[in-house]
Amino acid sequence: MKKTIVFLHPDLGIGGAERLVVDAAVGLQKRGHRVVIFTSHCDPSHCFDEARDGTLDVRVRGNTLVPPTLLGRFAILCAILRQLHLMLHIALFTSELRGLGPHVSFFVDQLSAGLPLLKTLASASPVFFYCHFPDLLLARGRARWWKRAYRLPFDALEKWSMGFADAIAVNSGFTKQIVTRTWPALARRRDLKVVYPCIDTSPPSGGPEATPLPWKSAGVILSINRFERKKDVALAIRAFAGLAPSRRRAAKLLIAGGYDHRVPENVAYHTELTALADSLSLRNATAATLISVLAHDDVDVLFLLSVPNKLKETLLRSATLLVYTPSNEHFGIVPLEAMLRGVPVLAANNGGPTETVVEGVTGWLRDPGAVEEWTKVMDEVLNGMGEEKLREMGRAGVERVRGRFADVQMAETLDGIFDEMGAGKGIISDELLFAIGMIGAVVGVLCAVWIIVKNL
């Protein structure tokens, strides 16, 4: 049966969570369902193509009362308030949600705080929550007592609110273990499903195939990650610097990824990485377009900010090796993208990549604390392995992605979960009544603020 599926996502920018949301939405849409994505922020210059070219129905709502942060702080508080505002906007302040029909299912991810309100506003609609990773474990600065005290109510709200979902899924076996250890009571009560993020394995629908960069024959080592310290991109630079100049020859390290000038950490970390490259005597430059990329032929390390899909495709087809540096990554979609294009992957030997990269078959898994081991793999790829061995690993990568991580498989799995939710009885009524009482005051305050703002 065809469904109307409403996605609620905080910020539809460029990142692994956003890529999963876009792929899930496109996959479900291809299966004949109507899909609408509501988000508090989506910048056409900083989002995936499907979110701006009309492929998906993306609607920005709930972004007029609360800013993303207050003086650069209180991000989690603002995110929760923006989510509540979005839900109230589409369900109460306008008839937008009702206009989608009486039978709507919800796909919510990243932020569970609004689930009790959502179940109050649309109690007959099944709600699916996708847990990328427990937010309480992502928050940094816990060593400070005031930070721990500040986070306590949000951590408790995350645990309590997640229980209002009719179905919960996680992105890997690794994340399932973490969630079970973090919230054992929740794990005992609910069946945590593993739904792997997947990618589109179909050939491009139009246009010429991306042309490899001119440095491919010399060797291109590629890193694709957001410019965040937890991604440990510095590991790739240190490992590359460990190669003797004679072994490095004309090879280049390309560091590409999500970069948002609104995010102070992105700006600061890019500066730190360029300073690290300078300190290691690696010539480096920063580029933003393909033309500017080609202009930098005399550098060792090239930084690329906010890479659009076409340039990303060119980079992947030009790479000799993909290095994926984050430790304890929840899943990691980039290794799949590389393997689909026949590129071997070097990744940390923990977290999600251990479920996607097969040691010695599609790539290598190494200790992120042993930089010299990463250098050895780079040296082997650039100087020790023959073309045939690299092609063999590339073919194995393609087969693995197509066999286990294709987008059609994720969409089919999600479709089955939505069918199960539709046939179920949903949340226990006592919990729902309790939620109504808990959120009544918040709803009243937000409605009052909205009325005041509208009349200013």
TrEMBL record:
The residues that cross the membrane are: 432-453
Any one Pfam family here would be Glycos_transf_1
Asked if Transmembrane is a keyword of the record, the answer is: yes
Broadest EC class assigned to this enzyme = transferase
Q: Which InterPro entries match?
A: ALG2, Glyco_trans_1, Glyco_trans_4-like_N
For this protein, the Enzyme Commission number is: 2.4.1.132, 2.4.1.257
Q: Which residues form the Glycosyl transferase family domain?
A: 220-397
Where is it localised?
A: Endoplasmic reticulum membrane
Q: Show the catalytic activity.
A: a beta-D-Man-(1->4)-beta-D-GlcNAc-(1->4)-alpha-D-GlcNAc-diphospho-di-trans,poly-cis-dolichol + GDP-alpha-D-mannose = an alpha-D-Man-(1->3)-beta-D-Man-(1->4)-beta-D-GlcNAc-(1->4)-alpha-D-GlcNAc-diphospho-di-trans,poly-cis-dolichol + GDP + H(+); an alpha-D-Man-(1->3)-beta-D-Man-(1->4)-beta-D-GlcNAc-(1->4)-alpha-D-GlcNAc-diphospho-di-trans,poly-cis-dolichol + GDP-alpha-D-mannose = an alpha-D-Man-(1->3)-[alpha-D-Man-(1->6)]-beta-D-Man-(1->4)-beta-D-GlcNAc-(1->4)-alpha-D-GlcNAc-diphospho-di-trans,poly-cis-dolichol + GDP + H(+)
Pathway note: Protein modification; protein glycosylation
Report one GO cellular component: endoplasmic reticulum membrane
Q: Quote the function comment for this protein.
A: Mannosylates Man(2)GlcNAc(2)-dolichol diphosphate and Man(1)GlcNAc(2)-dolichol diphosphate to form Man(3)GlcNAc(2)-dolichol diphosphate.
Q: From the Swiss-Prot or TrEMBL record, give the protein name.
A: Alpha-1,3/1,6-mannosyltransferase ALG2
